[in-house]
Amino acid sequence: MYSNSTNTVPGPLSRSQVAFPAASDPVVAPQIQPAQASPAPGKIKIQLAQARQLDCLALSRLLRDVPDFDLLGSCTTLDEFRRQCFKHQPDIVVLDARYPDDGAFAVADELRDHHSQLAIMFLDEKISHVRANRIINMYLTSYFSKHSGFEEICHGIHSLARGKVTHDQDLERILALDELANRFQLRADAPSAARLTVRETQVMKLLAEGNSVRSTAARLDIASSTVDNHKSKLMKKLAVHKMTDITRIAMREGLIE
Fold this sequence. Notes:
Elements: E1 44-49, H1 53-64, E2 69-75, H2 78-88, E3 92-96, H3 103-114, E4 119-124, H4 129-135, E5 141-145, H5 150-161, H6 169-172, E6 175-178, E7 183-186, H7 198-208, H8 213-220, H9 224-238, H10 243-252
Parallel strand pairs: 1-2, 1-3, 3-4, 4-5
Antiparallel strand pairs: 6-7
């Protein structure tokens, strides 16, 4: 069982530029780092999972160089990430949002079942409005693009450690803070894709991949009529009338390659 304590941080980072490793640097497969027996007081304990080895290696190097971060481990598979989280008990997990079949979200939900105060940061290739709608409704969870500056990502981690949620600047442009509920919500002029439900997003992804209504229903274990209903609703929300439009939007939102 996780501890529900939250570490404090000593202060802001330097504003100096931090860059990813150069392309000429040797690429070494990221190794799982063992937990320290006695983490330094005040350090933020972080567990990292990125689907691509190069991303995992680059982020690991950068996070280890931040004085008040304690990177407990890094890996590229969700099974190993889950095991490491239960072993190391991090304060914050940094997760790649693009694992297949919503795997990152499933693992995040599982970890939250055991540690309700766990802070989560999702990283994505670019901000996906359909994923953003899901993330902004999750407790103590932030969302950033990998194209954000590293200092911006560090600021997001520091904010989570203090119990405050911040998001990528591109995402915050379409959000408004509901001060009464103390959470973000979509602005009225937010893109229509951001208003799709989780199930509508799943249906859109599978149809855009070329699945029929029947095979989509089988994959989601729902009736074909239910798939048709979701399809009609999502097409209405997106103001489109053709499957080619659904495929185009799914590609734009990073749901399919």
